[in-house]
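Sequence design from tokenized structure. All designs in this work follow the same two-part layout: the structure record, then the generated sequence. An example of the structure record is given first.
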């Protein structure tokens, strides 16, 4: 007996960022499946896919981000439960899609008796049944090595660069908020034909989540500066960098980042900072209370759709970015 099978793509989303998942589905020309997610009275989560996924290529999208209805840990647990359900439903291949990868900053032991939670999360997803991980602008490239399977590390750079190329004047400067992200800033600067500067900073020894900017390396006087970073959390780093750049003679400062986590005082800080524009993407859901006048949200749905299509068709993902996602 000879059997010719046809590949089937199934796309599902958790409840953390359904709008982005819907956009990705629209780009792919497929219908977002119903994962049948419900909460029990005690807060436990249950998933029952409303269609057969047996033998299918299943992509499960979930941003590991807090919303009004769930915590970061809830979002991660929901992701794991959906992956496990797909494995037990005999999916042929399961890809975990994490537009925002949780615990990414806990990627090493900075002091004794600390966990490496980014590795723990990778192990959990693999154990649940995910054979591949797709994410975008991970906090550090080494996280790719934590997952015991293929990792497609995407970048929002094409989307952000396209926006900056049409809005930022020539002669502007791309600024790295610290010395550790200079290579990323250089990639942006090369594509935009701009120079690079960097902020020299140190973490506050007295206050958690606070940084102290000590100076600028590079010429920013009389120029528009664009700070490039992977995320804005409490906005301490960005706001400190803005003050330092203006003191060094910058005429205007723009912040461009992939993940708008915007925790705690972030929104108030950004509103009060001397920023002409804050450019972010939609990897993390932004409710109305986290939006403000000079916030510009760009969509990375097209980037994810192209990558997922390549994974499904077993073609190169890095060619989408001309290899510049390999960092």
């Amino acid at each position: 007996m000879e059997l010719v099978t046809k590949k089937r793509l199934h796309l599902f989303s958790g409840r953390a960022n359904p709008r982005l998942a819907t956009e990705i589905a629209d780009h792919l020309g497929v219908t977002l499946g119903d994962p049948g997610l419900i909460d029990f009275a005690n807060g436990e989560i249950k998933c029952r896919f409303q269609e057969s996924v047996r033998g299918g290529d299943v992509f499960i999208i979930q941003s590991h981000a807090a919303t009004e209805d769930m915590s970061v840990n809830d979002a991660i647990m929901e992701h794991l439960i959906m992956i496990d359900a797909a494995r037990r439903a005999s999916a042929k291949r399961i890809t975990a899609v994490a537009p925002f990868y949780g615990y990414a900053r806990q990627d090493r032991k900075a002091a004794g008796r600390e966990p490496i939670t980014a590795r723990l999360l990778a192990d959990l997803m693999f154990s649940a049944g995910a054979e591949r991980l797709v994410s975008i602008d991970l906090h550090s490239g080494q996280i790719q090595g934590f997952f015991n399977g293929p990792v497609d590390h995407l970048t929002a750079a094409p989307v952000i660069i396209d926006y900056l190329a049409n809005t930022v004047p020539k002669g502007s400067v791309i600024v790295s908020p610290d010395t550790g992200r200079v290579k990323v800033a250089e990639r942006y600067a090369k594509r935009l034909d701009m120079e690079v500067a960097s902020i020299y900073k140190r973490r506050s020894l007295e206050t958690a989540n606070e940084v102290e900017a000590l100076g600028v390396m590079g010429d920013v006087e009389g120029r528009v500066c664009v700070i490039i970073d992977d995320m804005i959390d409490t906005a301490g780093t960005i706001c400190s960098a803005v003050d330092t750049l203006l003191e060094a003679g910058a005429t205007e400062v723009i912040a461009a980042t992939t993940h708008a986590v915007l925790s705690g005082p972030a929104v108030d800080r950004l509103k009060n900072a001397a920023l002409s524009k804050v450019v972010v993407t939609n990897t993390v859901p932004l409710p109305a209370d986290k939006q403000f006048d000079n916030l510009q949200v760009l969509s990375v749905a097209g980037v994810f759709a192209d990558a997922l299509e390549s994974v499904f068709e077993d073609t190169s993902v890095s060619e989408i970015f001309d290899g510049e996602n390999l960092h």
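The radius of gyration is 20 Å. We note this feature because it recurs in several other targets discussed in the main text.
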